[in-house]
Amino acid sequence: MARVAYNQNDINLIARMMRAEAEGEGQLGMLMVGNVIVNRLKADCLDFEDLRSIDDVIYQVQGNNYSFEAVQKGDLFYNPARGVEKKLAEKVLKFWRQHPAQYALWYFNPYAECPSTWFGQPFTGQYKQHCYYEPQPATCESVYGW
């Protein structure tokens, strides 16, 4: 059983975002970015309440900016997904999870050492250039419950 309901459009959208955000980090880096997308859809807490679709997650606006920088700045995001990226996206949608992105709701590339917290949420680990952060269990139990 898949982690979330999805269709071909969702596969393409996640595949494009994974490539745009983490192509330089290889397949594992792209899987971790995809995992954060699925976690945000499943979490229904904090900044991610009321997200009901992959489109909602990818195109979420916080403040005056999209949550994912690649939506507003990324030429790669607007190119068609390739076969390998689609396979990775489907893997994330179906079952894939791994530390440090297993329960992560945030990641970013600080171009320096990873801070110990990100908006008050604890650092869970780093993969190549991206730092991953998961919520405190008391603030977002739903991310840990599945």
Automatic annotation (TrEMBL):
<feature type="domain" description="Cell wall hydrolase SleB">
    <location>
        <begin position="24"/>
        <end position="133"/>
    </location>
</feature>
<dbReference type="InterPro" id="IPR011105">
    <property type="entry name" value="Cell_wall_hydrolase_SleB"/>
</dbReference>
<dbReference type="InterPro" id="IPR042047">
    <property type="entry name" value="SleB_dom1"/>
</dbReference>
<protein>
    <submittedName>
        <fullName>N-acetylmuramoyl-L-alanine amidase</fullName>
    </submittedName>
</protein>
<dbReference type="GO" id="GO:0016787">
    <property type="term" value="F:hydrolase activity"/>
</dbReference>
<dbReference type="Pfam" id="PF07486">
    <property type="entry name" value="Hydrolase_2"/>
</dbReference>
